[in-house]
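Q: What residues go here?
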């Protein structure tokens, strides 16, 4: 029994130390960049969390109960993705819209995605881009249509002052 406890105590200490830095009630936030959707008529400034690592892209907005009106997440890739590459809503609690971008930030496709209530990821549908893309941006459902943002419009990030009219 002593040997078991000697082995267990360091493991528990390491586990608890790793957990103490994260608030269990709030999902961890990623670095944020200011960005700007540019249409022919106007510009819309947004704050986007940047998911550039595989683990961050896999988690995405899972567990979030809400997003601010002009907040979202940009999924950054180092190479072009196929048209069949898609996103899913496993463990995602809020409806989202996703804009798929080419390497110049031009929107090539927009999809609406619905939360998946299943406890099994295999039961959740995938939302493929339908076009080759380099990056993707998730925003609250209805964000793009409410602002007249369509395919052919563009995202500039970081904004670096390019959102002023």
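A:
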């Amino acid at each position: 029994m002593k040997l078991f406890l000697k082995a267990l105590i360091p493991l528990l200490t390491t586990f608890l130390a790793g957990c103490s830095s994260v608030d269990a009630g709030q999902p961890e936030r990623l670095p944020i960049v200011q960005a700007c959707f540019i249409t022919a008529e106007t510009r819309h400034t947004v704050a986007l969390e940047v998911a550039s690592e595989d683990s961050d892209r896999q988690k995405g907005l899972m567990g979030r109960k809400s997003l601010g009106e002009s907040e979202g997440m940009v999924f950054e890739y180092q190479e072009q993705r196929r048209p069949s590459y898609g996103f899913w809503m496993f463990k995602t609690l809020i409806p989202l819209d996703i804009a798929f971008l080419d390497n110049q930030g031009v929107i090539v496709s927009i999809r609406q995605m619905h939360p998946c209530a299943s406890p099994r990821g295999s039961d959740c549908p995938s939302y493929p881009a339908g076009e080759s893309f380099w990056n993707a941006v998730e925003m609250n459902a209805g964000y793009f249509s409410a602002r007249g943002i369509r395919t052919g419009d563009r995202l500039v990030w970081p904004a670096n002052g390019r959102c002023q009219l």
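A: Context that may help when evaluating the design: The first helix runs from residue 2 to 20. The chain has one domain: 30-156.
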